[in-house]
Amino acid sequence: MDLTISSEINALREGIAAFVDENLIPLESDPASYDDHENIRLPLLEEMRAKAKAEGLWCLQLQTETGGRGLNKQGMAVCYEAMNRSIFGPVVFNSAAPDDGNMMVLEKLGTAAQKDRWLAPLVRGEVRSAFAMTEPHPGGGSDPGMMLTRAEKDGDDYVVTGRKWFITGAGEASHFILLARTSDDARRGHTAFLFHKDDPGWAIIRRIPIMGPEEHGGHCELQFDGLRIPKENILLEEGRGLKVTQTRLGPARLTHCMRWLGLAKRCVEIATDYASAREGFGIRLADRESVQVKLGDLAMRIEVGRLLTMKAAWEIDQGRYAQKEISMAKVHVANLLHDAADTGIQINGARGYSKDTVLEWIYRYARQARLVDGADEVHKMLLNRHLSELGSDFWSWDVAP
Q1: pTM for this predicted structure
Q2: What domains can be seen in the chain, in order of their start residue?
């Protein structure tokens, strides 16, 4: 595995870092930059997006023919980490969830007509999107086999009934990817559909309040009561919904890790700067062994997270699923992000607990990391399954021919 990055990727990384420093981090300390849900307000977002486009830093994850810069997953890992030194970063560069994952799966699996209708407006930044999969009890969450939302065939259409919840971005989304049952077959019983917000037969029941800051559009509960979807809006083909889900969620879990590493590094940066300046009882915090141990531990764990993430990215670039590598990165980095924010707050004291820094924002945001796209426990169970199947080969090396 070669972790060397090209000069092109390094130039993009440097461009992103400079953009974040000059344009985004200064906005974080201004209350006027935020909307009512603690994200960047939309008019300001559009202004920053126009600047990112002008500097060639837009949709780096997509192929050039789609409107991106053609980065592979390793290149994305480098650039996404740099983007998320700011809490506003990913959405400005059109690399934030859920649009990020939706664009990549549409690019990979969509037909030419589907790309033109559903993908191109997302790439241009004209609309937002959502991925509707998770259901309230007793429906499907991490286990899609429990899914209750159904799409019954009626002529050339499918009629959808059921409920979804915690659908990120749904409140402002125009384009939706919906997973529903089309049969009871365990492997070929799910189908992925595309629909538009203006299609009749569905509604947002509520925007679910959460403990942390929200993505644009929040996390919503949806009701489907006769939504009609034409067969041409099936993504991939009927019965291949789990394939669509696997194609989307695997890389999406990893891009979360890429972004979270940037936030973890920002926490260390804020803590280090404060510890270097703050004195107590005649000594700087930075000179106290207890503080040095905390920061040294975080530095080590961030590097471990970067290596796990890059290994998974490399595996995907080799054409592999990288399921266990993604799970290991997801568990490690999700917990790291929480601990980095917690340590940053502790070192900053009351300042860290206040809104004078973004540490408290990151801390509240970080708690969801151990839940989204599969809870820690689900990923650890998956890792144990791989261990049971592979034995000592779980830790095998690639051997050169």
Answers
A1: 0.96
A2: 7-124 (1.10.540.10), 129-235 (2.40.110.10), 242-395 (1.20.140.10)
